[in-house]
């Protein structure tokens, strides 16, 4: 089973309803960047009422602000966003493991392959407390000299059980 085999057929339907999206501006209309998790259950456009052209959606494992910094700098300096909303979510995979555990898992998958030791340089940025992790990421961004000082930064939890969002900071 390969998911990519369905792409072209699905895309035909999408193209049929593409409408006037060719004229969307590259600068996000809401001047908003959302940092959130890559979790497959999250439909960010749906749960925040955002449309194409309105916001940058920066996704990674956990919605980690540190991991998103490269994209945030581009978003702000080149594409004009001035607001960041950080979302972490309930039942996130990031609550279920530690960096040392994952490093061991990777290395033990092929113990003779020394190239896998490169995983020791990866910080997986997991967290143990959901709301605390949101506060810490907002603080990280507020205190980061590379983030524009006038940026409005908020922190949120999305509940996968209910679809509800809840502001933490
Ligand atoms: Zn997650």
TrEMBL record:
EC class name: lyase
Q: What is this protein called?
A: Carbonic anhydrase
State the source organism's domain of life.
Eukaryota
Primary role: Reversible hydration of carbon dioxide.
Matches recorded under InterPro entries: Carbonic_anhydrase, Carbonic_anhydrase_sf
Q: What is its EC number?
A: 4.2.1.1
Q: Which UniProt keywords apply?
A: Lyase, Metal-binding, Zinc
The residues listed in the UniProt record as binding Zn(2+), with positions renumbered to this chain, are 37, 39, 89, 92
Q: Coiled-coil region(s) at which residues?
A: none
> Which cofactor(s) does the record list?
Zn(2+)
Q: What is the lineage of its organism?
A: Eukaryota, Fungi, Dikarya, Basidiomycota, Agaricomycotina
The molecular function terms of the Gene Ontology recorded here are:
carbonate dehydratase activity; zinc ion binding
| UniProt-listed Pfam families | Pro_CA
Which family, according to UniProt? Answer: Belongs to the beta-class carbonic anhydrase family.
Q: Which reaction does it catalyse?
A: hydrogencarbonate + H(+) = CO2 + H2O
- Protein species of origin: Sparassis crispa
In terms of SMART domains, this protein maps to: Pro_CA (SM00947)
Q: How is the cofactor bound?
A: Binds 1 zinc ion per subunit.
């Amino acid at each position: 089973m390969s998911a990519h085999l369905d792409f072209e057929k699905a895309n035909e339907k999408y193209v049929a309803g593409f409408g006037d999206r060719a004229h969307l501006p590259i600068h996000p209309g809401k001047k908003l960047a959302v940092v959130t998790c890559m979790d497959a259950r999250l439909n960010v456009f749906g749960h925040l009422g955002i449309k194409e052209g309105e916001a940058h959606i920066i996704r990674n494992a956990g919605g980690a602000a540190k991991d998103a910094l490269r994209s945030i700098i581009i978003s702000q300096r080149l594409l004009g966003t001035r607001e960041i909303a950080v979302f972490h979510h309930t039942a996130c995979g990031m609550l279920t493991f530690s960096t040392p555990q994952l490093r061991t898992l990777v290395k033990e998958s092929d113990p003779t392959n020394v190239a896998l030791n490169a995983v020791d340089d990866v910080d997986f940025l997991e967290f143990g407390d959901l709301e605390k992790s949101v506060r810490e990421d907002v603080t990280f961004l507020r205190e980061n000299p590379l983030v524009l000082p006038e940026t409005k930064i908020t922190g949120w939890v999305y509940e996968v059980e209910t679809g509800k969002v809840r502001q933490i900071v």
